[in-house]
Amino acid sequence: MKVAKIQRGGRVASAIIRGDRVHVVGRWYEEAALAAPFDAPRLSLSQLGEIADSAGETLPLDQVGLLMPSEPLSKLVCLGLNYKNHVDETHNDLPPNPALFTKVADSLVPHGEAVLRPKVSEQFDYEGEICVVIGKGGRHISRETALDHVFGYTIMLDGSVRDYQKHSVSAGKNFWRSGALGPWIVTADEIPDPSVMKLETRLNGETVQSTTADLMLYDIPTAIAYVSQWTPLAPGDVIATGTPGGVGARRKPPLWMKAGDVIEVDVSQIGVLSNPVGSEH
């Protein structure tokens, strides 16, 4: 099933998407999009199914806005250098452990909204990624049981400002509104084997990245187990699993995103995260 965070008339709610309609989960919130709770990952699949089958509030999909499917206080942990072809193109050594960084909420926008090339740089690069959304919290999770903790999967565009990234990964990966998350979460029961997912990133319709999840250096169960060693995972937390080769910085000449472009990240079994590119004024 597809689970989303939606907005309508200045109010925010969790929802289940079925065809061209959304089924509202729980109550509407008056808070701003980034501040509003996202209840769905705390519920079981059976609870969500009962809501979708009930005679509760439903709306046409085209009458709501899709927001980032995340909680205000959720962690967003990202793996770097998790595909060998990306390690090779960046001339790095294979990481002996997962290489991690974090992203802040306002560095991301929802599906359909413009990602912004920052005022201070032209080196605005794309990285398409598969993301895991945690449903069952835990600490020191074993690799063998890690998939039991997964609520579902979504997509991220990790917009990267390369000249700043050279001296500060935190800065280069967290420029305001430089990336995107969404458009929704597909629950784990529909993707029992995440290693078969295929990822493709397209810039203005041209494929610039293509991979399958089985080519990750550290697979999804390993990533969950490793992250849970240093921080407790909670429902709604997101782990981005890294990007494959093909980034713009390693092309000759470099290929940077600019205003007027459209960037899409397409993941099989999930959907397409699509965003126009704008410029910060």
TrEMBL record:
GO molecular function terms attached to this record: hydrolase activity; isomerase activity; metal ion binding
Pfam (any one): FAA_hydrolase
UniProt xrefs under SUPFAM superfamilies: FAH
Domain Fumarylacetoacetase-like C-terminal residues, every copy: 75-277
Keywords annotated in UniProt: Hydrolase, Metal-binding
GO biological process, one term: carboxylic acid metabolic process
InterPro entries assigned to the protein according to its UniProt record, in alphabetical order: Fumarylacetoacetase-like_C, Fumarylacetoacetase_C_sf
Keyword Nucleus on entry: no
Family, per entry: Belongs to the FAH family.
Protein name per UniProt: Fumarylacetoacetate hydrolase family protein
